[in-house]
Amino acid sequence: MHKPLRIALVGHGFMGAAHSQAWRVAPRFFDLPLQPEMSLLVGRDAGRTAAAAAKWGWTETSTNWREAVEREDIDVVDIVTPGASHAEIAIAALEAGKHVLCEKPLANTVDEATAMADAAARAARNGVQAMVGFTYRRLPATTHARDLVAGGAIGDIRQVRAAYLQDWLVDPEAPLSWRLEQDKAGSGVLGDLGAHIIDLAQYVTGRKLTEVSGTLETLVDSRPLPDSAGADGGLGGQRGTGTARGAVTVDDVALFTGRFEDGVLGTFEATRMATGRKNALRLEVSGTRGAVSFDLEDLNFLEFYDFTGPADRQGFTRIMVTEPDHPYVGAWWPAGHSLGYEHGFVHQVTDFVTAVAAGSPPSPSFADGLQVQEVLDSVTRSAATSSSWTPVG
Amino acid sequence: MHKPLRIALVGHGFMGAAHSQAWRVAPRFFDLPLQPEMSLLVGRDAGRTAAAAAKWGWTETSTNWREAVEREDIDVVDIVTPGASHAEIAIAALEAGKHVLCEKPLANTVDEATAMADAAARAARNGVQAMVGFTYRRLPATTHARDLVAGGAIGDIRQVRAAYLQDWLVDPEAPLSWRLEQDKAGSGVLGDLGAHIIDLAQYVTGRKLTEVSGTLETLVDSRPLPDSAGADGGLGGQRGTGTARGAVTVDDVALFTGRFEDGVLGTFEATRMATGRKNALRLEVSGTRGAVSFDLEDLNFLEFYDFTGPADRQGFTRIMVTEPDHPYVGAWWPAGHSLGYEHGFVHQVTDFVTAVAAGSPPSPSFADGLQVQEVLDSVTRSAATSSSWTPVG
Amino acid sequence: MHKPLRIALVGHGFMGAAHSQAWRVAPRFFDLPLQPEMSLLVGRDAGRTAAAAAKWGWTETSTNWREAVEREDIDVVDIVTPGASHAEIAIAALEAGKHVLCEKPLANTVDEATAMADAAARAARNGVQAMVGFTYRRLPATTHARDLVAGGAIGDIRQVRAAYLQDWLVDPEAPLSWRLEQDKAGSGVLGDLGAHIIDLAQYVTGRKLTEVSGTLETLVDSRPLPDSAGADGGLGGQRGTGTARGAVTVDDVALFTGRFEDGVLGTFEATRMATGRKNALRLEVSGTRGAVSFDLEDLNFLEFYDFTGPADRQGFTRIMVTEPDHPYVGAWWPAGHSLGYEHGFVHQVTDFVTAVAAGSPPSPSFADGLQVQEVLDSVTRSAATSSSWTPVG
Amino acid sequence: MHKPLRIALVGHGFMGAAHSQAWRVAPRFFDLPLQPEMSLLVGRDAGRTAAAAAKWGWTETSTNWREAVEREDIDVVDIVTPGASHAEIAIAALEAGKHVLCEKPLANTVDEATAMADAAARAARNGVQAMVGFTYRRLPATTHARDLVAGGAIGDIRQVRAAYLQDWLVDPEAPLSWRLEQDKAGSGVLGDLGAHIIDLAQYVTGRKLTEVSGTLETLVDSRPLPDSAGADGGLGGQRGTGTARGAVTVDDVALFTGRFEDGVLGTFEATRMATGRKNALRLEVSGTRGAVSFDLEDLNFLEFYDFTGPADRQGFTRIMVTEPDHPYVGAWWPAGHSLGYEHGFVHQVTDFVTAVAAGSPPSPSFADGLQVQEVLDSVTRSAATSSSWTPVG
């Protein structure tokens, strides 16, 4: 029997459900070196927190995140609140010696993210670990893409194209949510979806962005207020019913060109206005010897082009990334059986627990999260200066 | 707090893992009227059973399935053993008043299946429920296909084409497993994959097959014996290493044409020899007003053709069946987030528990399972008589 | 300047247009050893024949096909009439020393086809060539598939699946055409579309079918008579407007299982009732080392699966068969530029002219056409005897 | 019999073949109001010009383009030379009263294009017509996309994404061609492929670009000199064999964000470095009521998303744009039969001849071509000023 690892989850929206599922399922499929215990769920509203805890299987609840930080019997603080509160909670937790898993984007500002990365660096000296939750790295297909690129299968990288296309704001009557308010969400689609493609592009290519030229746009600048605060994490779907409207204070389209540290150019688009695209996180990396191409709407597949084989047999190979030898897959089902969105979260806590047990720093670190925040900030600054090229950091 | 529903799972191969995951996860996403408890895991080998129970979270273990049947504190017997043992266990469980969920195919022979259906009918009079586990009915896309067809969206059915294509026997050195031995598996690909497409085609069309013309074939008639019995449920992947070989006593390709009760023709192919097809359960139903088309390798999608709209806009619409209004989806993630293979099992136990709580017969019933068995038997008989048309039953 | 090759085209429906385009275009892209001259167009109605000749660029016209056979200044008789007249015209032409290109299916009956093959054999001794027009062999993707299979790229063949799906008869009010009358068309979808997949499957695999088990069905047995005879070759699209109806005397669905000469099984479906499938001729060949898969609706692509490479990179490769090294492609456009349906006809006359100039027998020969006719006949006989297995020939 | 329209074609590379095929084929399928005659082919090298004329069917040849302009018996000058010579030839032809069809991009500079547009405007007063050859507008799928957008099927436009991806420069040893030399080609991928997506995006949306933020890049700055000048129009494929290298003086990647006249944002990428993408001109337009999506590698299809129908049936509909009611299709084959790359050129001359006969200005006009040139120029200027937003014109 493994030693327990007692988890407190702070927040219980959409990400709370995903993280809860991950903590519950991971030890059933992966041989974790520590045994996660779903100890404490924290939320602002006692009733709703209790209901979520009952539904998802958390033993205790609290309405005060400081309890998670201060209790002796908590080992990990898992943060899934809106970005504005990440810094305060994470820094307190790290200073209290708790390992921290924090949802992306790391924070709402570079300053916050810097403080968090500093806190993580200090904590690391005491064996306390911190990780930011870029879960899309953990899908078999994206990890396989990274492995192929790192192994030289596509040669030298020529170009990157990344996009994250959703359409839930196309309807001008889709309601306002905290994700559309600058003071809560920090930014709009840039921080939400843009952060994902920045991280994934950097992860798969193994290169950091060094400068950007960007444009931000708000196509619909006011929306109906929702009937209630809602616990849906802001990804509504319903139309607003009231007549009161509130201002959309964030971008709903973010476009930028980025240059990676070795000069490679990449195109990036994050949007909630791509009609008909439900969750199309797409990444294509072109190289001198091949290419990889991924689309989250078909997450069990990776397209791979081998430029080195016989010319008459070349084409994009649609790899169904469900073979036992593919990353993470061996722990699940026999070949050919699809995984889903939530499996990335299972892999995430698996990797996190493994790192915690080993006392080794997990990846992506808070420093990585800070660097993504710096890219986001550079895009914002570039957009404010006629899209002129702006260095990262 | 709901009343508990205490489960005993008999068997712990690949299907044991899938069912365990379903019992664990279902109450976390669906509001079940009874609270499943993972009480007892039964397997032949004490050590391996204990290991599986620890991994999957079953409270107790036994090496004797009769314990599951006889214990007072068990409400449901969930059977995931090879087909040869289904009848004995299921009938005993039903007679002992246990609700039964039994993996497909219901049995290895029509006689066994008939006895099981009879036992289920008797038990039903006492409010004891029985269901056979055709899990592919429970995917959002397949249920949506059924709903569209039942609602008239494709008009009168013209034709059905069904196939279940896998390739794990293409390699002649893939090892022998119980799935390739007639005395254990009953039949080969016909009963394993063929049963799925028979059930799914009948479910989506709402029609039963009444006669068939079929062909069975064994392309590789001996294979290396595996190193050990293995707990993988027979879907190996490894190549055999020893020199000893055993006879393959079942079909590895099953082809048949079927006629449904209103005369509609369908084509059926079940094979483990379709190179490159990993898990391609495909169903297409053509009708006078439209068509639906599904492929399990892309299980979050349903293709729908509307023959009634403007001619210049017609085509197959690739519906991403991940919207809140789609079957089962509302309980999971926001729109656009993919589900996986295992979710069908979660839906299966959800529907089963709901029926048990309501005291209403779940579907597909053992009678449905028997009818599928009769189709399988008719195919076998047709194949033995020069593929001549053979009535079902 | 090459020696002229004077062509007479008999018939001017849909196929007449396709063949005319082929004769006109082939010498502009391929270096033909003889210079085709579009000399004579033959049709029953003088006015419509003259109009077609003017449109398509034929120098002279006639209403009597015997003129094509008897004139000294005609070298080739190209036959695109309905099947019932193929034998008489082709045999007369061959006996008159004309090279013959005859549309598929070769004839409406085995007897006719036999007489034609005999005539072709006699003519061949005098250097007179005959070819049957299975044009789908001549697409770059299908020829490439054949080359891959012949070169061992998929190893030993395990299975074949072939289908030709159209939907122009789904509407019960689609008009009657000569293609739906037994006395003119010989058979229905079996001879029309079924002949194509028989030929293509045999061509790509390099194997002949030796026995079949088949089913034929007519789903709509009467249809409105068209307003006029029409020159559309019977592929209407319009709905009938009159109230008079005529009997459909041919099959609209043909299903069969076939066994090739080395025992390989194949499934075949030809239908005009596959709602939403416009021209889906599909062929997949599974082998021990790989697979090829083709769909005429995406005719510039061939899917190829290589079972011999690294397991983690396997998948169907979507080869865009538009590279200079691919069959026929070098004569056309730079890499990546799509060809269309009609290009197969251009390749057909190119191959035909090349064979005629070389004095070597073109392929597929009339004997090949006869063999396809025998397969069709065997399917019909099998269908009449409860789908029992029936030898070919 | 229609009045003749005597054509002179100036240039005989890749585009010469495409235009020749168009002139030859168009009158065979479309009922043109004038009868094109392929009168004169002009090229610099007498021998190669004569060979091309013989191959493609031009009656006469010349090595001096002024002959085409000066001869009384020429009605149309069709210009397919490299961009540097467009202005001189086109202006002379227009001043001589010849109708002009000029390949895209209209010119190498805005100054040249302005002079050409001015000349066209003057000529138009005398009934002399001028058109620029953006052939991709003329595919059934792209024209259908425009019609859908213009008819309101996608509502108000939200976003545009356009890309033209090729990979023939990925290999650093691919030879230098005139397309890679600034003095001949004017620009690199921007003018060649970028011009296409600018025109197509503007055509389908019905909106002009008003400002851009762009980046140009040359990834490989020297390449082997080809063995000979070649007649391939610069789309080699072969690798250079010699040791001598020449400088690549144009961009091979062009990225820009554009704003249309009503504020809509679009992303644009033109590249010859997208490994595995052979001819992927892609355009997606997102609107409040739907979306259209096109890829030239699948040119017979248009994806259409209808945001107004039942939510549970929404998805991208893959329209096979081969029905008789689709643009241009009725003149060709029955439903379901694919067209190819060259058909766009046939449609182009059909539309051109129709406009000439009607005495009405064809579209796209030289003024349209100038506007595209202005966009290209703005991208270049933006790229030179840190990608800052730069007005068009």
TrEMBL record, chains A, B, C, D:
<feature type="compositionally biased region" description="Gly residues">
    <location>
        <begin position="231"/>
        <end position="240"/>
    </location>
</feature>
<protein>
    <submittedName>
        <fullName>Gfo/Idh/MocA family oxidoreductase</fullName>
    </submittedName>
</protein>
<dbReference type="InterPro" id="IPR050463">
    <property type="entry name" value="Gfo/Idh/MocA_oxidrdct_glycsds"/>
</dbReference>
<dbReference type="InterPro" id="IPR055170">
    <property type="entry name" value="GFO_IDH_MocA-like_dom"/>
</dbReference>
<feature type="domain" description="GFO/IDH/MocA-like oxidoreductase">
    <location>
        <begin position="144"/>
        <end position="292"/>
    </location>
</feature>
<dbReference type="InterPro" id="IPR000683">
    <property type="entry name" value="Gfo/Idh/MocA-like_OxRdtase_N"/>
</dbReference>
<keyword id="KW-0520">NAD</keyword>
<feature type="region of interest" description="Disordered">
    <location>
        <begin position="220"/>
        <end position="243"/>
    </location>
</feature>
<dbReference type="InterPro" id="IPR036291">
    <property type="entry name" value="NAD(P)-bd_dom_sf"/>
</dbReference>
<feature type="domain" description="Gfo/Idh/MocA-like oxidoreductase N-terminal">
    <location>
        <begin position="5"/>
        <end position="133"/>
    </location>
</feature>
<dbReference type="Pfam" id="PF22725">
    <property type="entry name" value="GFO_IDH_MocA_C3"/>
</dbReference>
<dbReference type="Pfam" id="PF01408">
    <property type="entry name" value="GFO_IDH_MocA"/>
</dbReference>
<keyword id="KW-0560">Oxidoreductase</keyword>
